[in-house]
Design goal:
The complex is a heterodimer of chains A (268) and B (262). By secondary structure, chain A is mostly helical. In chain A, 71% of the residues lie in helices and 0% in strands. Chain A has 13 helices and no strands. In chain A, helix 2 runs parallel beside helix 7 and helix 8 runs parallel beside helix 13. Chain B contains 13 helices and two strands, in the order H-H-E-E-H-H-H-H-H-H-H-H-H-H-H. The chains are: A mainly alpha (268), B mainly alpha (262). The interface between A and B is medium-sized, with 36 and 34 residues.
């Protein structure tokens, strides 16, 4: 038990130093930061604009009003961009494998997954997070949610981040077996999420709803949390996102370990 | 078109067509977007109409959106950007070939490689979803003209954005900003007709609108023949205008190239 606590503290220390080093390096290139942050704002502004234009023509979509839709989009943006902020290095798994760079990580006395996940920060996250928070605040006040629900929302956002990070890890881990530099599966995951999860799942056929909830649990990162907050689901459902987060996190760590076992270096 | 242009286009075409992932991306990315669009808009429109689109017309609009978005994102933006970012542009300057023209040939060659996937996807979508038929035979011909003009227009915008690499030394942020503007103001995300008047005016004043709204409007007969010809002329004018603008920007920014070493 004590040994486990030490190893968790060690992993946390490695993560903090690694991501800290990248954040410090960002300060050296302010123009780069602003270009990326503004591009993040652009993406989320189009999502905001899309909802605004849509609800200029309709009053509900799948039973959801304008403010509920903004909450949904906000959750999607904040949980999605939190992976760019805190776990962006995971996108490099394929590149590290093809270039043999994973060898360096394997020889260091620190967990490989932590080293990879923390090696990079997606600076667009700062813009996305700003717009995502703005959408949540407008949706929150418009939907009449109170301050008392903020702790629940924070817990749900945390679960959303873990689920998003775990699924992204799983998708990138596929490159251990696919042997390509491009994170094809991860691109598809993001595309699927961007296209489908900005709408309430109620507009889709039942098979799609089940698939996006229980097979690929993207719904637990945005749709289910918002349903819980607006009171569309029984409070017992509050147990579901943490369970989904724990399960996906555990599976991702396990599969990454299997991937490392399958790794046979690039060879020189 | 000179032989050298065809050679550049052929090389990129062959390179792109050889990769199975290119095919997979075109079908999956465009296909997911199309299917989600169909599910959402069928839910919203039902038996009624929105912005002048009934359900069969909206199906046609979404399929045209699939065609145009797949084409718009099929070019090799990063190959152009990397030439500037990794300094290859210095070697390009020593070659007796116009940089912009060579990149245009390569870019369009890359776009052509996505055509088989587009044709296949469109055929399947037409058979499976039975969208509204075209307004007339002439409308089909003019729609094709408009789709063809997407090739130079897409290159022009991409090239103009790539030139910013001389200043920023990075491309990803610029590419994302362009992509978000394109997807919103083209009508790929939501038809322009649903936007409030002021936003619709802004959209029509930008080149992005010609990526989806123009071909779809012509196909569905939302504009008469004169209107269609006017839109195509505007699209062509944007393609030419952006080409000239990019040349002027290139002339200024290329002076930033610094060649080290010996």
């Amino acid at each position: 038990m004590a040994a486990e606590a030490i190893s968790i503290r060690h992993a946390a220390g490695v993560y903090r130093r690694s991501i800290g080093a990248y954040l410090r390096s960002m300060a050296e290139y302010p123009a780069d930061f602003w270009v990326m942050a503004v591009s993040g704002i652009f993406w989320q502004a189009t999502l905001f604009g899309f909802i605004g234009v849509l609800f200029g023509n309709i009053t509900t979509l799948g039973g959801w009003g304008y403010h509920e839709m903004l909450l949904l989009a906000g959750f999607l943006s904040v949980t999605g961009s939190s992976t760019a902020l805190l776990w962006d290095g995971i996108w490099d798994v394929g590149k590290l494998i093809v270039e043999g760079d994973l060898d360096y990580r394997l020889t260091r006395p620190a967990p490989v997954l932590i080293q990879v996940g923390s090696k990079h920060v997606g600076m667009q996250a700062f813009g996305e997070m700003t717009m995502g928070t703005l959408m949540i605040v407008i949706g929150w006040t418009g939907a009449g949610l109170g301050l008392a629900q903020i702790p629940v929302a924070l817990l749900l956002l945390l679960c959303g981040f873990v689920i998003q990070g775990a699924l992204l890890t799983l998708a990138n881990t596929a490159n251990f077996w696919m042997k390509g530099r491009m994170p094809v599966v991860a691109f598809m995951l993001i595309e699927l999420q961007l296209e489908s999860m900005r709408f309430p799942l109620t507009v889709f056929p039942i098979a799609v709803r089940i698939g996006l909830t229980f097979v690929l649990p993207l719904a637990f990162a945005s749709f289910v949390p918002v349903q819980i907050l607006i009171g569309e689901l029984d409070p017992l459902w509050l147990l579901a996102p943490p369970a989904a987060a724990a399960l996906t996190g555990w599976i991702a760590a396990l599969v990454f370990r299997l991937g490392l076992r399958a790794y046979d270096s690039a060879g020189h | 078109m000179a032989r050298v242009d065809v050679a550049f286009a052929t090389i990129t075409f062959k390179r792109k067509i050889a990769y199975k992932t290119t095919w997979l991306f075109s079908i999956v990315f465009g296909g997911v977007s199309l299917l989600v669009g169909l599910a959402v808009w069928s839910h919203l429109i039902g038996d009624g109409e929105m912005g002048g689109y009934d359900w069969p017309a909206m199906k046609a609009y979404l399929i045209i959106g699939f065609v145009t978005s797949t084409l718009a994102w099929a070019g090799s933006d990063w190959e152009m950007a990397n030439r500037i970012l990794d300094g290859h542009v210095a070697i390009d300057l020593t070659k007796p070939i116009d940089f912009q023209r060579a990149r245009a040939a390569e870019y369009i060659g890359g776009m052509v490689a996505s055509v088989p996937a587009v044709v296949l996807g469109t055929l399947i979508a037409f058979l499976a979803f039975q969208p509204a038929p075209p307004a007339s035979v002439l409308a089909v011909a003019l729609t094709l003209c408009s789709v063809l003009l997407i090739f130079p227009l897409a290159f022009g915008l991409a090239f103009l954005c790539v030139l910013f690499c001389f200043v920023t030394q990075r491309f990803l942020g610029i590419q994302w900003a362009r992509d978000s503007l394109l997807s919103f103001f083209s009508g790929m995300m939501i038809p322009i007709a649903l936007m409030p008047g002021w936003l619709e005016t802004i959209a029509w004043a930008l080149p992005f609108v010609h990526f989806t709204t123009t071909p779809a409007s012509i196909y569905l007969g939302r504009v008469d023949t004169a209107g269609a010809l006017g839109l195509i002329a505007a699209q062509a004018a944007w393609a030419v205008g952006i080409w000239i603008l990019a040349r002027l920007v290139w002339g200024r920014l290329v002076k930033k190239v610094t060649i080290h070493g010996g």
